[in-house]
Write the structure tokens for this entry.
Amino acid sequence: MPTVDASPYPFTFHPESTALLIIDMQRDFVEPGGFGETLGNDVSKLQKVIPPLVRLLGAARAAGLPVIHTREGHLPDLSDCPPAKLNRGAPSMRIGDPGPKGRILIRGEYGHDIVDDLKPLGDEPVIDKPGKGSFYATNLGELLAEKGVTSLIVTGVTTEVCVHTTVREANDRGFECLVVSDCVGSYFDGFQEAGLAMIAAQGGIFGWVTPSDKLIEVM
């Protein structure tokens, strides 16, 4: 069994029961002109995640690990988008508004899709989710059960929102989660640091944290 040097202590996993989860690496969050930028965020902070994640994705595919992608977004009629989410803050564009990459965070639009560098292969499931957590209102739990997955290698954006929510959901469902520190990203440096610290705190209350180079070494 591979063992990775991680915080708060080494993480050991069975490759046959481990999957790589890539959360919301979508144009609307990562690229200029998307929803993330309309909220006033510096999307270049999230773009830094792409190169190490490309390397990790290649290693996971070579090792034969299942790869699962998620996308946050909503139906065109916004029937699955609660008012509290639709109306929050004062962005220049809201969910559903026309933007440079199509309607913001709407399923099927160009901006809703995953960036080209991390494009899913034909046999890699893509989970469309209406919320921040990857288990809420999706079939992710059933899919992992079908594949016999008990451990998750967690990557994507943003660290303190969709990544953290998913890790907490997974932890409550009994999954062991390894969060890859340079393959998750936040628009806020302080949130990135605190988010990673919270996962590994108190003996790994939500999971383990390691950089991608240490994980790739053992994969």
About this structure: The first strand starts at residue 3 and ends at 4. The two ends are 10 Å apart (CA to CA). Residues 3-10+20-218 form a domain with the Rossmann fold fold (CATH 3.40.50.850).
